[in-house]
């Protein structure tokens, strides 16, 4: 699968749902979320005390919490990668999916990884880190969509998707289990539909990818919209979209050459 990172500024996600699973750097090896991974995300871990420090701002946060937006970075085979599925081996550091933290991270990243790798000196400028994050989020979102499809938890195409979106929400759905729509960036007409506008006002729409790439992920020629009905996959998709937005913002801020104070 070779998805180019689509424009990912969805601007719609306020979700802080978090289904990061797995212990930090230990435990049984699990399949990671590549383009072909099939398992749904793990439910939130009950484990407490998994406090990790953001290398950007220094804040400590429990990565087992749903509200956590800490992302794990590891060096794998000499490459700096975001371990968004939480299954990668290796020593990792954490950074918030926030533009400020992504912008501040590179210098400390160099220090953290230099202690552990004697030869690899990654170029981890802020723009690069943002781009890495956007690409990683895009790959993970693709894997999540494929997983949802295998679980038969996706309504594909306008008719099916708008039908799902048009139904009144049940009591549980009104809170968090509501279906999540993914609308291709180049699907303007469906994006203007009443059902999508209403769902967007409820924070249940992500604008992502394009019709051809969505189609490729979902086994169709082109797909303008799909609706994910799997709660934890939907939550993870929102999280990835929000993280990608932070990555885009970090790239833009870095390109603008903004000089931020080291601490506030
Ligand atoms: Zn931070």
Could you describe the 3D structure shown?
The strands form 3 sheets. Strands 6-9-7-8 form a 4-stranded mixed sheet. A 3-stranded antiparallel sheet has the order 4-3-5. It has helices at about 100-115, 125-150, 160-165, 175, 190, 195-200, 210-220, 230-255; strands at about 50-55, 60, 70-75, 80, 90-95, 155, 180-185, 205, 225-230. It has about 260 residues and is α+β, with helices and mostly antiparallel strands. Residues about 1-40 have low confidence and may be disordered. It is built from 8 helices and 9 strands. The chain folds into 2 domains: about 1-145 and about 235-264, YlxR-like (Hypothetical Cytosolic Protein, Chain: A, 2-Layer Sandwich), CATH 3.30.1230.10; about 155-230, 60s Ribosomal Protein L30, Chain: A, CATH 3.30.1330. Helix 1 packs across helix 2 (about 125-150) and helix 3 crosses helix 6. The structure holds zinc ion. Zinc ion binds near residues 57 and 101.
Indicate the topology.
Layout: E1 51-53, E2 60-62, E3 70-76, E4 79-82, E5 92-96, H1 99-114, H2 126-150, E6 154-156, H3 158-166, H4 173-177, E7 180-183, H5 188-191, H6 194-201, E8 205-207, H7 211-218, E9 225-228, H8 231-255
Parallel strand pairs: 7-8
Antiparallel strand pairs: 1-2, 3-4, 3-5, 6-9, 7-9
Helix pairs in contact: 1-2, 1-8, 2-8, 3-6
Bound molecules: zinc ion.
Residues 54, 56-57, 59, 96, 98, 101 line the site of zinc ion.
